[in-house]
Amino acid sequence: xxxxxxxxxxxxxxxxxxxxxxxxxxxxxxxxxxxxxxxxxxxxxxxxxxxxxxxxxxxxxxxxxxxxxxxxxxxxxxxxxxxxxxxxxxxxxxxxxxxxxxxxxxxxxxxxxxxxxxxxxxxxxxxxxxxxxxxxxxxxxxxxxxxxxxxxxxxxxxxxxxxxxxxxxxxxxxxxxxxxxxxxxxxxxxxxxxxxxxxxxxxxxxxxxxxxxxxxxxxxxxxxxxxxxxxxxxxxxxxxxxxxxxxxxxxxxxxxxxxxxxxxxxxxxxxxxxxxxxxxxxxxx
Length: 285
Fold this sequence. Notes:
This protein is of the alpha/beta class. It has helices spanning about 20-30, 65-75, 100-110, 130-135, 150-165, 180-185, 205-215, 250-270, and strands spanning about 10-15, 35-45, 50-55, 80-85, 90-95, 115-125, 140, 170, 190-195, 215-225, 235-240, 275-280, 280-285. The strands form three sheets. The chain has a seven-stranded mixed beta sheet with strand order 7-6-5-8-9-10-11. A four-stranded antiparallel beta sheet has the order 2-3-1-4, covered by helices on one side. It is globular, with a radius of gyration of 21 Å.
């Protein structure tokens, strides 16, 4: 069931302790809020607690009033928390270079309203997808990147992110390495996609070299971006089998297909606020 405009969402990360669920439930019941979905997890390896609750305020109390009142509960348990309107789409920026399959897939899913995102713009270091973006009503920003202009280019990107209140940055096959400072500034808000042939087949034409080695499956990993290249917390993964009679171009096509589905699913999970960072791992409800 899709949430209506009255459904609110509460997400919580905090040290585990007795009474968290009871206190949250009591808080909502006391204000006549009806819980429609709830999930929780205690990680016994690090004593951390994670919770996601969707609820409807039957009393007509506002989101702002609920946030103000919940701060007391949050402080008691040292919570990192957020309360939002569940149906509100997440303000999103897509970055792309010269491969457009992931961009095309996300834009299509956005247009048919299967992703809860609001694409504010497309940013690229090339002009390849300017027409595609503008034809789909998306502002396109061309920011070339060289070794000499990298810092300036990132500042232009930061200015766009801040001016539009961007909540999610999707690297839809964006082939530039972001600085450590940029990754730290937007930690948990940048999603990248890469093929499953790493680290065995790095560099150019990985699928062709995988073909030469006779790989039996190809896949993709969507993860949050950190300073450790392609090693951030994993959100989604999948694989597809490779038959012995497939040619290199067919492997490339298979790889692109799985990349699009993995990335779009990761974006959906994040935009629905189902993904919680847990150190180098993730908790997904």
